[in-house]
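[09:14] KT: can someone run the structure on this one? pasting the chain below
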Amino acid sequence: MTLNTLNIEQLSVQFDDNKILDDFSLTLNEGEILCLLGPSGCGKTTALKAIAGLLEVQQGKIELFGKLLKNNGFELPPEKRDIGFIFQDYALFPHMSVADNIAFPLKGQPKPAIDAIIKQTLAMVHLDGLQNSYPHELSGGQQQRTAVARALANRPKLLLMDEPFSNIDSQVKQSLMSELRQLLKKHNITCIFVTHAKQEAFAFADKTAILNNGKLVQVDSSKNIFEKPKDAFVAKFMESGNLLASLQIPNDLFTHTIMTQSQNGFYLLHENGFKVNDTQGVKVKVIDSLYIGYRHRLQIQMNEQTLYIESKSEVAVNSEIYIQYPQVPVWLAS
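[09:31] RB: done, structure tokens below
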């Protein structure tokens, strides 16, 4: 049975006259991994800190497994919220060993219990044998796993992570993301992580929430947000494809009749939705061609507009080709 883990209603955070979060509402189920995605300065980290109780919230309600964390004048302190938090720089104590870092949130418990938790958690994150090492002796991936181990030591009901993969070398990032996702799924841990890189949402999250200027714009699966964005902002941020003003599309581009819905709207044309022909469709010029693995990405000039399309075969730069879009385009408001 799926349980509702996190319920946030109309959360607002304001510093002086600057509103950082505005009417932030979100529901998350047990074991789900949510990516909070958006441009720099949009309020992503503020949202995590508000959920964790690390900053003042002016308005809103937060519940975790039915336990009230924040509502009106009531606010539960961070240490009583059953939430683990992993900061962008991991915030490990440099003068403490791996074991002592993991034990830090376990103060007050009997030593045998602490030792047992350290052993179990080290095994969970594959750091067996490194309990006596110090942070400066660890690789970036090992530091990340130590931060995860410390955050999970108290077996929190919710794990929050702020840019957890930003300090990881790109060569090992994919394997670490896969490893951590499997860990969270194995132990049914609910998680929200913040990033500005959409590739991390595809690789790690079950659902993605797009945040812009403190407001949630769209919450859905990463696939739906990429293929069916709610508006032009989401499409541009996700780099979902070409945005063309409805009145600027040549009649021969589509293979079926498309009704213009608004003079101010856009059609989203996915790069892999085009068909390259010899004589049918719209005549365009190839400006550039780049091989991107199993396919070529063509930059083309169509009238006054620059588009990007994918082609299975190589096409010479400066050549002229015909293109059509046989799919039904996605209509977006401006």
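[09:33] KT: thanks! Helices lie at 44-52, 98-103, 111-124, 140-152, 170-186, 198-204, 222-227, 232-238.
[09:34] RB: yep, looked fine to me
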